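ERR on first pass: missing label on line 2. Operator R.T. fixed the label and resubmitted. Corrected input:
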Amino acid sequence: MKKVNFKIVIICLIGIFALVSISVFSFYAKKYFVKSNEILHTLSDIQELDNKLNYEILSSSMYLYYDTDLIAFTIRRIHEDIKFLKGLDFFQNHYKKAYEEFLKFESDFNKKEELIFEYLRYSFPLKNSLIYLSNSLKHFSLSNKDTKKVLSILSNIFLAKSSIDMDFLKNIDLDKFKFLMNSNNFYEKAFYKNLEIFLKYFPVYKKYLNKILSFPTEKDLKLVDRSLMDQINKDLKFFDFLSLLLSMFISFLIFSISFAVIKLENYIKELSYVLTHDILTGLYNRYKFNQDVKDKQDIAVAVFNIDKFKNINDYFGNKVGDLVLEHIGIYMKDFFKKYNIKVYRVGADDFAVIFEDWNKNEILELVNKAIEFIESQTIIIDDTPFNVSLSVGVSFERPYLEKADIALKKIKKNILEKVGVYTKEMNKEIEENIKRTKEIKEIIDNNGIVSYFQPIFNKDREIEKYEVLCRVKIGSQIKSIYPYLRLLKEIRLYHKVTEKVLKDSLEILLKYPDINLSVNISIEDLMNENFRFLVEELAKKEVIDRITFEILESEITNYEIVKDFIQKYKRYGASFAIDDFGSGYSNFQRVLSMDIDILKIDGSLIKNIHEDQILKEVVESIVDLAKKANKKTVAEFVHNKEVFEVCKEIGIDYFQGFYLGEPQPSLINVKKS
Amino acid sequence: MYANGVDVLTPVKYDKQKAKLGKLLYFDTRLSADKKVSCASCHSFEEGGANHKQFSIGVFKRVDSPMNSPTVYNAVFNCWQFWNGRAKTLAEQAGMAIMDEKEMGMNPKKLEKVVNSISEYKLMFKEIYNTDYISFANVCDAIAEFEKALVTLNSRFDRYLKGDKEALNSQEKRGYVLFKSYGCITCHNGKNFGGNSFQKLGIFAQYIKVPRGRDRYEVTHNPADKYVYKVPTLRNIALTAPYFHYGNVKTLEEAVLLMGKLNLGIKIPKKDIKDIVAFLKTLTGETPEILKE
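pass 2 clean. output:
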């Protein structure tokens, strides 16, 4: 996490650096272009003004009336522009070469300005002479010949002035007009003087005009311009380089970020794979199943469960179990791929599939096919072949998995069937369980478990002892505890019943010193601390020697614990009985090896003993065996006289049953007959 | 434009506050070395923005020879200042006049000391120029700003040019035609009837009796520029006697006559001179607003 933060900080810093670089770059670039633009603009303005100046000078020579302000102010504006450019430090510092050339322009322009003033000094008198020469003619009093001469010279002068061509003045001999100076006519005299001025000034005027118009100011400006452009091109290359650098940098940044994003996407892909897949089998997982099922309507879910998978794990280890699961996963996937159906691992050995738009018959057919296919596969792990059998629960309603599971559990009880479809009735059973659980909890909380006592007789019908039984009190009704027994064990509350029995027994035994009791205990009780404490109490109060502990043979899973318990309390005089002996696969050798005192023969063997010869023979052999092992026997379920008689005849020691005495809430009303 | 060669005067944009401050400075004799001379001493508005003496009297009674004081009116339209154009701007001219030892006899340091010691100016410059120290350049700038306001609008001739044919009488109109046909207009053109070129005095004269004074040669050191001067404005010419750079010409008639003789090579008949002078008198404009305040 810290590493990631560090990376983010680095990327942020680089990003900020890039942004700052771009802004600094654009700031300077902008400044550069604004300033350069200013210089270029002013230079082109000067260029334009210089051209205008030339134009104005030509105009001033052309027109008799001319506003010299136009020249003067153009010169002034050029000076202002020059002053402005010289004030720009950027120009002076950055465009050194161009600036030097610009200074050359300035000095040339100053010279040009002087030339212009001089030019004007010749141009204006020239104009005035022209005015006079043409104006004075009317006052002349010359001969025709002289007038012709004057006219011809006048026309030459006008041609020269208009064409600015000296050739027209070449042939003029001023001496030929000297006679005018001697004239008494004032105008004729002035004509000569003006002619003299004109001829004297015209070449100078022309010289200056040519000089001005060909003065290298324009060339100077072009040089400035070129140097400026050279530098600007160089600068642009530098800017190009900078932008390239910057864009490379930004590309790198984008690349880095893209790389990070791709990496992140891969992480997300991986994470989402993990989120939606089961790592062991590669199938989709329960989370994905829930997602897929969430918004779907009219679907069915089948849950495939491997029968007795726990055994594989127990006997061959989890590694083999995992391999089996992997294989089953592959088979499931292979099989359902054809139908475009996804397979999910939704529990340890539960595989689910979702059917969309399939009818019930089609589903059952396909499920059976799938079972057939998978069960036909032999999985070989370390040269050991494994074949699995499957059970399937199918549900058409929400919550799919839970209901398919109910159907599965139901079908598991039936060896012949493999596929169970969830029905409402199945749910009723569950509901019943839930209801009962609530009830029994309430019963326990309200001290609703009550002890009943059923007498056990000897063959003389004398009460030997009482078996302490339990009833439940619901309201004012007393009911059998039998419907709750399995539940109590499931929800691990059975010890409460035993505790109640032991407490009541202790009370009875203390109260009636001649009474013997027989109590049922389960193997789980032996491990319960309260139970041990209560048994210790019985021992301490020295009543334990009047107690027989009845243990169900079928319940004994750990003989050592039972043996230890028996050994320990035998010493205090407690008796021990095996209950329901002969009900299942009784292991005589094992039972007899335990130091027990009494065998309580299972009711199923006794119930019809008076009618069934085989049963009688079975019981006879049990009794015979017991006698040889020095164990007493008890017959349960003695429900009529005939049974009682047969049992007596066989040689059973004690008798218990409704014929002899029903369970009673107290010891008082013992049946006697 | 080319038909006339001359143009109507138009107002020049200026900063009113600076001009007001400039006006105070213009009349302030404390800006001179003897505290007796101001700009107005030589460029008096009672004397057409110039001085009726041939040479003005500067500090410590020094005679400001050899140049006659030109008018300050419409000086803003002169492309260069002084007779020889040695100043390019109004501010430059003001500065040079202040420093001229025959005129106001100061130097920048001294002037700054004086101006900065006057609290009134300190306040005004602070307000207008946002400066705590009044520089020589500030002073010149304010005076120049005031001079921009000294435009004499609505002369009769300008009204005539603008289309009021009745603004000139027939003699004056005749004078204007003569002004053009004799070629006066060749040099005295533009808004200011001059002030936009440098011309030689006495094209037709062998030699001139009056001294050259401070002519263009002083600026360019070009021998051809001897006796070359800035063409003076003819605006308000009737108010600014005496005439010519040396101030030795007392009347307009004489000035016109001399111009014809020296620069046109002709003797203009008396009748024509009268008409021309009549025309020249129509160039007198109205007193600028700023002087009425």
